[in-house]
Structure formats: C-alpha cells, structure tokens
Give the backbone structure.
Amino acid sequence: MYLQEAIAPYAGQPLTRQLLLDILRDYKRPYDKITELVKQEQLIQVKRGLYIPGAKLKLPPPVSFLLANHLYGPSYVSLDSALSFHGLIPERVFEISSVTLRAAKTFATDAGRFSYTKLPLPYYSYGIQSVVLATNQTALMASAEKALCDRIVSTSHILLRSVKQTLDFLTEDLRIEKSSLQQLDTGAISRWTKIAPKKTSLVMLVNTLNSL
C-alpha cells in the first residue's frame, strides 16, 4: 500500500529509476527493492532505468505514445501510428512507430513494441504537435501532414513521379479516403519540401493533393 500511495501522484507517467530510488530512500537497499518489486509484478521494467506500474499496483500506466517519447529520444510518434491516430488510415496499429534524430532502433518490451526511424535536421523539427491523450498525459506527435510526409520520406521504395501514381499510393496502398486528403494543409507541406529528403516526391504529393 505504501508504494501505491507514493507513486499515485505520478500516475500515468513513466517512472525513472531516480524517482523510484527517492520514493524508496528509507530502504537499506533501494536498488534491490526495485528488483523485488519487478519480480512481484508491482513494477514493469520497460528498459534499464525506466518503469511503469504493474497491474498489482492498480494505477493507470502511461499511454503507449507517451511511453514511446520517454523510451528513446529525442523522438515523436509518427508514421502509421500517427496516421491511424489522426484517422487517415483505417488499420489499427499494434507497433508504436516514432521518428528520432538518433540511430534507428526497435524495442520489444512487456509494455509493447516500439520502433524508431531516423530522419535528419532541420526536416525532423517541423510539424510536431503536443497532443493531450489523457489526464496529465501529453505526447509529442507528428501532425497528419508530417506523418504522411515521414511515411513517404522514410520508405526506401517510394518515389512519387506522377499524380496518378501518387494518388494510387495514397488511396490504394495506404487506403486514405479522398475526403481526408482534401483536408490536409498543402501549404505546410510545401514549406517542408525546401529542407526535406525526397523533395521531388513531396512536391508531387502537394501537386496531387491540390488536384483533388
């Protein structure tokens, strides 16, 4: 009960080792206590030094998108995860996909599977939003436009050369409705093309969206 009460103010947030050591400072061996709590399933170790409450604590864990921000950073949720969140693609996404400035990496954890794709500055820094997901839980995520651009930029075999090819990719491959495409901000995408990888593909994306 003591641990539940001590962690309650941080409900919904990832728990760092330093925070847990502070909470458990009255124990002679707080490091050993953390290990014991993981074995008892009161804590789940997501990676070394990062934890979330286990089911036995009966406290809300952080949502997956917030956890993704903390698991490997700097990063923001993007690609199919953000496209699904924004309602552009119909599929439910089981892997949380993010973009990072660091090396590409994938984590298979007890809290889910998380993948990170590297994209360069300054393109990386555009189109990132702070999204409220639950009470006291806010995550960094790509806008709908940036998530779509990230998908095109980060997929090696995608080279958009015509309006027809681009429209087929958007509506057939990604299964995005034309009505959703018409809502996208082509002005924002146009500004990003100046500093983006695959500039010609993003220019073709803008041309296609403007033709709808």
